[in-house]
Write a structure and sequence with these properties.
Radius of gyration: 14 Å
Helix content: 25-40%
CATH class: Alpha Beta
Order of helices and strands: HEEHEHEEH
Strand order of the largest sheet: 1-3-2-4-5
Shape: globular
Number of strands: 5
Mean pLDDT: 79
Distance between the termini: 34 Å
CATH superfamily: Glutaredoxin
Largest sheet: 5 strands, mixed
Length: about 130
């Protein structure tokens, strides 16, 4: 567990400063793990301002929201603000997206950039 935290910290330190602009519709900063369970599929999006690839992932998630509208919730977790949440979910690289089904079970974990097409297939498999 400490090794994962050290790797995550190193990756964050090596990344360049990048600011992701992300639509706030359907996106909440996760403050309580209980909010991860929803009546519709949820994507936990782990990112930070110092992650160089996170702005690209944010654009892919925006495209996904455009396709799924009210059928999907995306919760952004800033790993610099909530490192304990990242550790709990085993996040060791950024960006990471975790797809959670309606029952609150983790169905898919994507480490690194994940294109809209793959995310669409994963969400569709839950429908």
């Amino acid at each position: 567990m400490i090794e994962r935290l050290l790797i995550t910290t190193l990756l964050i330190m090596l990344g360049t400063t990048a600011y992701a602009t992300f639509k706030r519709r359907h996106v909440r900063v996760l403050g309580d793990l209980e909010t991860a369970v929803s009546k519709i599929p949820t994507i936990l999006y782990f990112a930070s301002d110092s992650c160089a690839a996170c702005p690209s992932q944010a654009r892919y998630l925006e495209q996904l929201l455009a396709q799924w509208q009210e059928e999907l919730v995306i919760q952004k977790i800033d790993t610099e603000v909530e490192p304990e949440t990242a550790v709990k979910y085993g996040v060791f690289t950024l960006p990471t997206t975790i797809l959670i089904d309606q029952q609150g079970d983790v169905r898919e974990i994507n480490y690194g950039l994940t294109h809209t097409h793959k995310l669409t297939q994963q969400v569709a498999s839950l429908a």
